[in-house]
């Protein structure tokens, strides 16, 4: 049952934002997350060509996925506390600059080793962006519509993925695709100039400067944000459970998204055109599911919405594994891929769920730690698929995602749900 806050504590609330300010904030969150996803996913769309250029194996390319995802954990640990200390808007632009530059440099890498380093630089920036954008969104948005707004932000990956698919198919070689990934650096400048800072964060800074105690949190904790606060008794349980939930979600996602383009071409023997069509349809299905899950999170609570979509995906993963093992028709396998894509709706819940769990002084720190560390631990998933492919094929490796979905669902049952609570500086 959701633990919905009924009385807003003193301090700046979401109602203090104008419609224009909310529009700028959601635009910043949508563009930041969309650009981040493009830079993260572009490798999966050109993985085969990258391997051929550098003369490395499928397992080695899988290790690149692992390296860049592991680096997101570093970014999450680093930039979350910085956003709580220096502001959401400022640090958000830093993260975009870093992942854009890292991706652009990857286009120029003369050898495989330097290419891996560039992907890790991009991963560090990517790891920080997600939680900071959602912290800003959660603080500005109406509690009754916060989930829907989060679903809209998550849905930004559809145009990002569609653009990635188009770019990967249109450019003369993979290096051009990574060069295009450097363009988000321009957007960072626009975000810094146009997007307002969080009013709750500004009020908290004023309270600290004046030596005031900003509500119950400040009366219990020192007036500094940092990782140490996450390991206090009142936050530690949320951090551990949240990280495990994200690990399950990210592992299940990365094992199939990282290798599905290659699997469609080499495992199901689809041509370039049919492969692009399948990926476009999958992305469109996910867009619908993200918005639906976000809206249902406002009505049912974050936990119930996550479990509903995860249940769909778990059944689809099991069916996918059976179909692969029995050599079923290509159409049936693709159909299950589409159902798995629909089940991804639960990703739309994380941003608002974690933002509501943590107080303003540690909102970006807590959200970023759970999401990025969970994602970083899951980073070995694509590498495992690459290793399993030699014996069981890519389809067999991808099927391991079903175990991670089950883990996510079990852990989510124990994570608090504070859906729709008011978010202020004084909590």
UniProtKB/TrEMBL annotation:
GO molecular function: carboxylic acid transmembrane transporter activity
SUPFAM superfamilies (UniProt xref): MFS general substrate transporter
Gene3D superfamilies per UniProt: MFS general substrate transporter like domains (1.20.1250.20)
Bilayer topology term: Multi-pass membrane protein
Segments passing through the bilayer: 24-47, 59-79, 91-108, 114-137, 149-170, 176-195, 238-256, 276-293, 305-328, 334-357, 369-390, 396-416
Main location: membrane
Keyword rRNA-binding: no
Keyword list, A-Z: Membrane, Transmembrane, Transmembrane helix
Subcellular location as annotated: Cell membrane
Pfam families: MFS_1
Domain Major facilitator superfamily (MFS) profile: from-to ranges: 25-419
The keyword Membrane belongs to this UniProt entry's keyword annotation: yes
PROSITE patterns, per database record: MFS, SUGAR_TRANSPORT_2
Any one of the GO CC terms: plasma membrane
Protein's UniProt name: MFS transporter
Source organism: Amycolatopsis carbonis
């Amino acid at each position: 049952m959701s633990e919905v806050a009924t009385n807003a504590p003193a301090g700046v609330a979401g109602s203090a934002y104008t419609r224009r300010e909310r529009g700028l904030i959601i635009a910043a969150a949508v563009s930041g997350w969309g650009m981040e996803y493009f830079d993260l996913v572009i490798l999966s769309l050109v993985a085969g060509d990258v391997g051929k250029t550098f003369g490395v194996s499928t397992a080695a390319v899988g290790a690149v996925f692992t390296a860049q995802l592991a680096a997101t954990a570093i970014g999450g640990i680093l930039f979350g506390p910085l956003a709580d200390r220096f502001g959401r808007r400022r640090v958000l632009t830093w993260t975009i600059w870093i992942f854009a530059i890292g991706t652009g440099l990857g286009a120029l890498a003369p050898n495989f080793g330097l290419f891996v380093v560039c992907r890790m630089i991009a991963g560090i920036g990517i790891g920080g962006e997600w939680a900071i954008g959602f912290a800003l969104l959660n603080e500005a948005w109406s509690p009754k519509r916060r989930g829907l707004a989060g679903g809209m932000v998550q849905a930004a990956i559809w145009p990002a993925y569609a653009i990635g698919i188009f770019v990967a198919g249109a450019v003369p070689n993979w290096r051009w695709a990574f060069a295009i990934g450097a363009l988000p650096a321009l957007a960072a400048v626009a975000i810094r100039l146009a997007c307002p800072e969080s009013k709750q964060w500004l009020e908290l800074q004023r309270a600290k400067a004046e030596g005031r105690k900003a509500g119950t949190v400040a009366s219990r904790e020192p007036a500094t944000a940092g990782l140490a606060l996450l390991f206090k008794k009142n936050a530690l349980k949320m951090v551990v459970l949240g990280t495990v939930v994200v690990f399950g979600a990210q592992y299940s996602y990365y094992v199939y998204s990282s290798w599905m383009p290659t699997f469609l071409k080499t495992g199901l023997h689809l041509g370039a055109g049919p492969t692009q069509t399948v990926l476009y349809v999958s992305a469109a299905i996910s867009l619908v599911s993200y918005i639906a899950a976000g809206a249902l999170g406002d009505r049912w609570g974050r936990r119930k919405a996550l479990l509903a979509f995860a249940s769909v995906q778990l059944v689809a993963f099991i069916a996918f594994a059976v179909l692969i093992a029995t050599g079923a028709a290509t159409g049936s396998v693709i159909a299950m891929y589409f159902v798995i894509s629909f089940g991804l709706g639960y990703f739309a819940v994380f941003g608002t769920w974690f933002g509501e769990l943590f107080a303003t002084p540690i909102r970006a720190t807590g959200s970023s730690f759970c999401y990025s560390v969970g994602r970083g631990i899951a980073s070995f998933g694509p590498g495992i698929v690459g290793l399993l492919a030699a014996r069981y094929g890519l389809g067999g490796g991808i099927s391991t995602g079903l175990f991670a979905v089950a883990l996510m669902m079990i852990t989510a049952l124990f994570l608090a749900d504070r859906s729709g609570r008011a978010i202020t500086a004084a909590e």
